[in-house]
Structures are given as C-alpha cells and as structure tokens.
Amino acid sequence: MAASTPTRPKTKQVPCTECPIRQMPAFRAFKPDELDFVSSFKRGELHTDKGATIVQEATHSAHLFTVLSGWAFRYKLLRDGRRQILNYLVPGDLIGLQSGLIGEMQHSVEALTPMSLCMFERNKLSTLYRKQPELGFDITWIAAREEQMLDENLLSVGRRSAIERAAYLIAFLCARLQQTSGSRVRRPALPLTQQHIADTLGLSLVHTNRTLRRLAARGLARWGERGCEVIDLGGLMSVAQWEGLPETRRPFI
Amino acid sequence: MAASTPTRPKTKQVPCTECPIRQMPAFRAFKPDELDFVSSFKRGELHTDKGATIVQEATHSAHLFTVLSGWAFRYKLLRDGRRQILNYLVPGDLIGLQSGLIGEMQHSVEALTPMSLCMFERNKLSTLYRKQPELGFDITWIAAREEQMLDENLLSVGRRSAIERAAYLIAFLCARLQQTSGSRVRRPALPLTQQHIADTLGLSLVHTNRTLRRLAARGLARWGERGCEVIDLGGLMSVAQWEGLPETRRPFI
DNA sequence: CGCTTACTTGAGTCTGGTCAAACGGGGTGG
DNA sequence: CCACCCCGTTTGACCAGACTCAAGTAAGCG
Hints:
Two copies of one chain form a homodimer. The first copy, chain A, is α+β, with helices and mostly antiparallel strands. Chain A contains eight helices and eleven strands. The first copy, chain A, has a four-stranded antiparallel β-sheet. In chain A, helix 3 packs across helix 4 (133-159), helix 5 (162-180) crosses helix 8 and helix 6 packs across helix 7 (205-217). The interface between A and B is large, with 53 and 53 residues. The first copy, chain A, binds a DNA duplex through helix 7.
C-alpha cells in the first residue's frame, strides 16, 4: 500500500521548517512557537502510489493527514456500487477532518496521483487545542472552508445543467490548482479521467463525454494527453455563473 | 423582522443554566466552568417569524446563532434564480459557522417556522478557543458533522433516483426531528412545502409532487395537513439505501 | 502482438422538465 | 355571508436532457 516516492527518493522526511506548503503564497505563515508545536505534532510521512486508498469508509482511522504533494479525491458509495465524488484534495488540504473526528469514516479517499502526506495522530488533537488555541481555530476555519466548497458543489449538482456543471468543475479545479502551484499555469492540466468527472457531476460517463466535447467545441477546455486542459477560465466561469474562489490567505496544518 | 415569540411571550431570555437544549438526551452535558463561560459568551436572543431571513448571502454577519427552537434552512441561489437548499437547521444547530468564519456569507438562511435563536458575537470566538479549548474542539466537531450531512446529501442529489432521494430526505429529517424532540413521535410531521423538497432534491416541483405520491402509494409517507408525515421510517431508509444517523451524543454551543 | 484502459460515437429509451390548467382551503374585503 | 384571491398541491400532455446498450478507436504495456 505505502510506497516510496518516485519523485523524491532520498528525502523521506521533510522537516516542518522546510515544509513546501508553508512557502506557498496562498497560506499564512506560522509563528515560531506554532512551528515548533507542529513539528512535534507530526508523526511521519506517508508516500503512496496513484490509486492507493488512503482512507476507507466504515473504518476507524487513527491519523489525520495534510497533503504535501499530489491529488486525491473523497467519495462515497451506495451499496449497489454507484459512486459520488465529494471533493478533491490538493496540497495544503487536511484529510480525515471531515468525519474522522466523530467515529467511523463515512467516506473513502483515493490517490489520483502519487502523493506525499504528512501524518498526525488524531488523539493528540486535544493537546493541540489546549496548547495552541489559534491552531485549533485554524482547523475549524479549514473545516468551514471545506463546507463552503461542498455547498457550491451541491448547488452545482442540484441546480446546474450538465454543461454548467462541467464548466464549474473544471474552473473550480483550475482555480485550486493555481492557488497552490504558485500562479498562472498556461494550460492547467487536471489528472482526472472522464469517469472521475462523471462521478463528481452526477452524470453518466457517456453523457459526460458528450458534454466535455461541447465545452471543447465552444473553445473553453479541451481533452489533452494528460487529462483536461483549461483554455478559457473566464469563459468557463461565466457559463457556470460562478464567481471564483475567495482570495484570503488561508491557514493550514 | 424580529418578533416576539408566540409560544413563550414572557421569558424573552432563557439563561443558559436553563437552556432547553442542554436537557435533550442527544447532547452532552457541560462542565460547570464551560457553562459559566458560555453564559458570558451569549449576547442575547433573536426571535423571528416564519419566512424571516436570518442570514443573507454576500453579506457580513457579526453573529453566530444556536437554534433554540424552530426550523430553518440554508440555501444558495444562482443568478437566474434557481435555488438549492443545502441543509436544514434544527434545535441545537449552529448557524453561521459554515462560511461566516471566512468572510462574506456564501449562503442565506431562512426560517421555516417561528424561531428563537441564541446569539453570540463572532469576534469573541478567539476568546473561546483560548479560554475553553474543549469548546473550541466541539465547534470543530460540529463543523465536521455538518460536513458529513452535506456529504450524504451530495451523494443523494448526485447518485440517487428521484424516489430514493425523496425517501432519503424524509427519513433524514425525521431522524433529526426525533433526535431533538425527545424520541418517537408517532407520525412525525415536517413543516415543509413541496417546493422546499424540490429545491433540496434538485428536482422540479411537478416531478417532486409525483414522486411524493409514489411514496404515499407505497405506504411510506403521506402528505398531511401540516406537511409531510412519515409512516414507515424503516421502509424509507431501505428505499434510500441509508443507514441512519450516528447515535453519538453530541456537543453544542 | 494481444490485452487493458480510456475515450468516442450512434441509436433507442426513459426519467424528469416544462407548460398549462384545475382544485381546495384560508383569508380578506365588500 | 359571500365572492374573490392567493398559495400550495395535483394532474395531463408533451418535450428534452440524460441514461443504457453496444460497438469502435486509440494509446500504453507486458
């Protein structure tokens, strides 16, 4: 299940002082004592292959993770196999907050690409709240932000048409990619298959394919070798009637 | 906008020591110092009529609320007026967590019935985290639980058929009603119109009506005078392939 | 070279949407 | 008291968006 990182075979452990996430402009800086605390809070790293299951529904998980690199997605299954993808997890996101606090996990998480994850022990969380109340607040903040994303997603699946949904999803993922990967990538490519998109939008694979071709015909996005490429972000946003991500600098870990 | 409570015209302010929520079996007890703190944290109460807007999208709100009595719903609008209801708020739920922490509200909240709400000042939240770290943890817990509910809702709208969605929604609301209103009500009645249900399920009003009649024909629920009545909760859950709410005692305020 | 995985495309069907009209109860003004 | 209106529910007829089944293509891999 766990595997060594192909991309960084020598450094198995990044010290928090050199955490690559902290340096991204989208995130707020730590104070020195917060940094110390987080360093002691970190338990290790997990490196996984693409396709690995990081969290399994109906299971207890003793850990929380912060994504250091790579993409994953959160999903739920119906008993007969229908799958709904709930959200995507990118560098800086916290895994296991969503329902891990409460008891059994109510969803699964699967890696879309090879990933490195920073591990924390769940049962030390109360120490964090006691010793670093501001970090506790940050965790609530992160949870609230996740809820915001879910809200927009639910609006999309419930009330947008197929082409609007697809436009929203692609624009949304593109915006998140740009937040973490520094800034403007010329043609952001998303590491998804059309099946993932279908299961996110609540559409069938076939109809998703046709919808994506319609987006391509309008010159908004196209399907390249490495997945979906964004051509006209503004156009996508306007099709979806979507305003974009808030620009606040956000906390993490 | 604010109105006096019809049901409790004399006591405009319930002291936290006599908070009706605390006595419900679904919620965990406070320690004495927590209770003291929360008492000082409370800023007042808000009493609203049915139909009142408690929180408005694209607006800043200086307050958080805990629902003392009544029902409300959280929703988002598309620019052209399409509405998606995201979740319902019942006694014990916190209003304003979802996105208020971050900046502008990204959704609105409207009262379904007359309500009493307990008000807190948002900018005193950091004091709470500093002085009562466990309450801080509880707030995160509450946010995580909300996210769980949204997850299930998204699964529903994305992957369940019309009749499954309706069955899920009714079963879900019934379960929440039973958690707070003590226990078994014989024929729980939900204070919704079919338009609310349609906007929750992502269906049209007409199709929602037909779907509800199909549920009635199967003897699972029916439409009474005061809204939807649940007849066979187990049947609804099995149609929806839904396992029910976790039974943990949960924190609040 | 055959196998698998992912994307495409066509044809026919069905679920759910739209438009339109009617019903029934509660409230209001004449 | 009655006529009228409004809101929410109900029903019918028709249409369209999305689903299923099925087959074909293209790229990557052992």
